[in-house]
Design brief:
The complex is a heterodimer of chains A (333) and B (165). Chain A is globular and about 60 Å long. In chain A, helix 4 runs antiparallel to helix 5 and helix 8 (197-210) runs antiparallel to helix 11. Chain A has helices at residues 8-37, 53-63, 74-91, 118-139, 143-166, 168-174, 179-188, 197-210, 235-260, 276-297, 303-332; strands at 101-103, 106-108. In chain A, strand 1 (101-103) and strand 2 form a beta hairpin. With 333 residues, chain A is mainly α. Chain B is of the alpha+beta class. Chain B has helices at residues 4-19, 60-64, 105-109, 135-139, 160-163; strands at residues 43-45, 70-76, 88-96, 115-117, 132-133. In chain B, the strands form two sheets. A three-stranded antiparallel sheet of chain B has the order 2-3-5. A two-stranded antiparallel sheet of chain B has the order 1-4. Chain B is elongated. Chain B starts with a helix and ends with a helix. The chains are: A mainly alpha (333), B alpha+beta (165). Chain A binds chain B through residues 33, 35-41, 293-294, 296-298, and chain B through 8, 11-12, 14-16, 18-19, 21, 23-25, 27.
Chain lengths: 333, 165
């Protein structure tokens, strides 16, 4: 069943805005949870329970002067945060968040677009997003920025390998690169986090590193180093980079939900599947809470530990996991 | 490796446990923690029971002040205008609280206990000039009162978390 082409446009608009609201909620949730885990209140002044803090942040960032270094390569310097933001938002478009509905005779599918290679598309957009970080640091014409962007690319490129390999097992079991097909397969058989538990672990660890969240936040180790690739950015340009990082985390959590936790389906009760987005968002925020919990608990890795862990632990484990999965898939067939 | 992983995971339990505890933060403007009875806040000038000022304008406090924030201009008491109990009185007595370091040396230097450090600490202003306290302001009872712990009962104030958990 196909949907009319124009339905995609309002759907994309809604999804983008909802993702932006999730981004705001995530920053609030992170501060609140970190606060509670350190026996503080967290934000509790702006609005009820401090819920207006993201709005206050936004107003502050928009009103702040966005100055640029004299030697900055002007078009690239301005485009870089936009590239990061665009890829972060665009990656969300292929995630299925519902089973599809029929409203006033129009069929609406549960994702903005449904392409046959949606998994590869997400990884490709993630790789393009790294260009934002590299180009931003390089175009700033500052040694601290360029050192920061070098740190960022080294880490992101290293961990992207194991991240992509870790989902290979899921692709083999789902027999497809289409996220919708993978969800359907999980619904028909078993949620993939049980047979692919190793893959899930590698995916989570690689994902934390890929979104440069603590304890893998070497690109911008706040307490130790100058900010990193966005040293020379301020105001809303800096805000775009920050938003891109958080939205990457949301997208990655969404991908994890889709690949390992059966996407938008409610366990056992099939009649509840029409409320797909609710279950999707619940699973999503559980994973984000896990990310924050990890941040509150573990100390930051040293740089050599980071590289050793990525290349000598995660990559072999992911490779062996993919090989073993391939063996079992062939053996079962 | 086998003995590292449980310890690494044990940390997650520690952080999770804190979420269900009441935070220790003292919500300052709503809750004012009682200060020590001998807390050194903003200064006060004192008067005798008969209404005469204790300060005789000797400027020993100004001499003792390491931050040089006290200005005293003395004048003679006359039969028609008797302000203090001594020979002279302080015609001008100013403390610049933006310079004061609240060391209490003025209190020690004063031979008549005319100046003491009170308990007020909420003395921020929008304007530097407002922080120059004149004699009238120092003689008047403090407007903003802060809770003071009972000196007989405690050496230290009760911590917030003992009252509220």
């Amino acid at each position: 069943m196909h949907e009319a082409w124009w339905i995609t446009i309002p759907k994309a608009l809604i999804v983008i805005n909802v993702v932006m609201v999730f981004f705001a909620l995530t920053t609030w949730l992170e501060r609140k949870l970190l606060g509670r885990m350190q026996q503080r209140f967290g934000p509790n002044r702006a609005g009820p329970k401090g819920l207006l803090v993201p709005i206050a942040d936004l107003l502050k960032l928009i009103r702040k002067e966005a100055f640029a270094p004299m030697g900055a390569k002007e078009p690239l310097y301005i485009i870089a945060p936009m590239v990061s933001m665009f890829t972060a938002l665009a990656a969300f478009s292929v995630l299925p968040f519902g089973a599809g509905w029929t409203v006033w005779g129009h069929h609406i599918t549960g994702s903005v677009v449904n392409v046959p290679i949606s998994l590869i598309l997400i990884f490709a957009l993630g790789s393009v997003g790294i260009y934002g970080f590299i180009v931003g640091g390089w175009a700033s014409e500052s040694k601290y920025s360029i050192l920061g962007s070098m740190r960022t690319c080294a880490q992101l490129v290293s961990y992207e390998v194991s991240l992509a390999l870790s989902v290979l097992g899921v692709v083999l079991m789902g027999q497809s690169l289409n996220l919708q097909a993978i969800v359907d397969k999980q619904q028909a058989t078993l949620w993939f986090f049980i047979p692919q538990f190793v893959g899930l672990c590698v995916f989570m660890l690689g994902g934390v590193a890929e979104t440069s969240r603590p304890p893998f936040d070497l690109p911008e180790a706040d307490t130790e180093l100058v900010a990193g690739y966005h040293t020379e950015y301020s105001g809303m340009r800096w805000g775009l980079f920050q938003a891109a990082e958080y939205i990457n985390m949301i997208t990655l959590s969404g991908l994890c939900v889709t690949l390992f936790f059966d996407g938008y389906h409610f366990p056992w009760v099939h009649s509840l599947d029409q409320f797909g987005p609710v279950w999707f968002v619940l699973k999503l925020f559980t994973l984000i809470g896990l990310f924050i919990w990890l941040r509150a608990t573990q100390p930051r890795l040293r740089y050599d530990q980071l590289m050793r862990f990525g290349w000598k632990v995660l990559l072999p484990v992911a490779t062996v996991n993919a090989l073993v999965t391939a063996f079992f898939v062939v053996w079962a067939a | 490796m086998s003995f590292i992983v449980p310890n690494t995971l044990k940390g997650f339990g520690v952080t999770l446990k804190q979420v269900f505890k009441k935070p220790l933060t003292q919500q300052y403007p709503e809750y004012k923690r009682p200060v020590y009875p001998r807390y050194r806040g903003r200064h006060r000038l004192h008067v005798h029971a008969n209404g005469l000022e204790k300060c005789v304008g000797c400027s020993l406090c100004a001499a003792a002040c390491p931050a040089d924030c006290i200005r005293v201009v003395p004048a003679e008491n006359t039969a028609g205008n008797r302000v203090s109990a001594g020979e002279r009185y302080a015609r001008i007595y100013e403390i610049n609280l933006s310079r004061c370091i609240f060391c209490g040396y003025c209190e020690l230097a004063c031979p008549f206990d005319a100046i003491t450090l009170g308990n007020d600490f909420e003395i921020s202003e929008y304007n530097r000039d407002d922080l120059i306290y004149t004699k009238d302001m120092l003689l008047a009872p403090p407007i903003k009162r802060v809770p003071v712990a009972d000196a007989d009962l405690y050496d230290t104030p009760i911590p917030y978390y003992k009252d509220n958990s």
